[in-house]
Write a structure and sequence with these properties.
The protein is mostly helical. 63% of the residues lie in helices and 2% in strands. It contains 12 helices and 2 strands.
């Protein structure tokens, strides 16, 4: 097993000595804090990629069956339930990393690990023949999402769009909306907030489509 796991000499996740930093003179403190920030640069992307790769292998080889589903008293029967039970606090985020790794099997790990999540989500929608191009991979790693989307649409005839945030001002409305999102994730197995919001919107449109058309016709009469 030697060499399977790489251990950096200094872990980027090592907890800094905040007390000691607080005692430093301003210039020295600024230098120390800049070094800490430089050390953790890219950690989020790397962690997302590692988790996605690991989950994908676990799913492909059905390795989740080596763990026992304590509620059922038998080995886990699905990857979805394994993630939900083994990682309950972060299961939605973890499912997103798995989905990204599954949807981009032709992207080398080193490139995948260097991309921000927003560009990974966009790259999932890019045609397979385009997303493996060196210039596309370079753009996904280096460009802000908006610029990356514009480049894909302009130079590679893709049809991407930057998602707009859903803005609500009243706390009660936000609470109801968050509860609806959670319901969509649980009941419709949505992966992530964006998919849940889309499911809620589709459900509402389907329920009210006939009434909407009727009222529009009455208003035009």
């Amino acid at each position: 097993m030697k060499g399977v796991i790489s251990h950096p000499e200094t872990s980027p996740l090592q907890t800094p000595d905040w007390f000691a930093i607080g005692l430093l003179q301003p210039g020295a403190a600024a230098t120390a804090l800049r070094a800490i920030l430089a050390r953790v640069e890219g950690v989020e992307e790397w962690t997302f990629a590692v988790r996605g790769w690991a989950f994908r292998i676990i799913k492909e080889r059905s390795l989740f069956k080596f763990d026992i589903d304590l509620e059922m008293g038998r080995p886990f029967e699905s990857m979805n339930r394994w993630i939900e039970q083994m990682h309950p606090k972060h299961h939605r985020y973890y499912k997103e990393s798995l989905a990204a790794a599954e949807n981009l099997p032709d992207i080398p790990f080193a490139d995948f690990a260097a991309m921000p999540r927003c560009n990974i989500k966009q790259l999932e929608k890019v045609s397979s023949s385009v997303r493996i191009l060196p210039e596309v991979l370079k753009a996904a790693k280096s460009m802000p999402e908006k610029a990356f989307v514009e480049k894909m649409n302009r130079e590679h005839s893709q049809h991407l769009a930057v998602k707009q945030p859903v803005v609500m001002a009243e706390p009660d409305a936000c609470e109801d909306f968050e509860e609806a999102i959670e319901m969509a994730i649980v009941c419709e197995h949505c992966v992530g907030r964006a998919e849940a919001i889309r499911a809620i919107s589709i459900s509402y449109k389907q329920d009210w489509a006939v009434e909407y058309e009727r009222r529009k016709a009455e208003g035009a009469a």
